[in-house]
Design goal:
2 helices; alpha+beta; two-stranded antiparallel sheet
Length: 93
């Protein structure tokens, strides 16, 4: 496929390429130049289009679950003999 460059530096993306990439009027594209000199054109996908691509793993964690985990960790640290280090207010930072 070919496309001519206008005097303004514009080119028409052939219909088959636009359809393959799912491009519509007003969409934006990105160009990447590889070290070997080849150029890749990809559609610029808005962040909102990525919503729902990943499936959640397991159940959601509540604030209460987090508080319980923190309390359990602190309790375990105390029984292990570890102490939390505190910085003196006069110590340099």
């Amino acid at each position: 496929m070919e496309s001519a460059i206008t005097t303004k530096g514009q080119a028409t993306i052939p219909k088959a390429i636009r359809e393959h990439l799912g491009l519509k009027p007003g969409d934006r594209v990105k160009f990447f130049v590889h070290p070997d000199g080849s150029v890749v054109l990809l559609p610029k996908v808005p962040v909102s289009a990525l919503r729902g691509m990943l499936q959640p793993r397991g159940s959601h964690v509540t604030i209460e679950d987090m508080d319980e985990a923190i309390a359990a960790g602190l309790s375990a640290a105390r029984t292990d003999g570890r102490k939390r280090r505190r910085r003196s207010s006069s110590a340099p930072r």
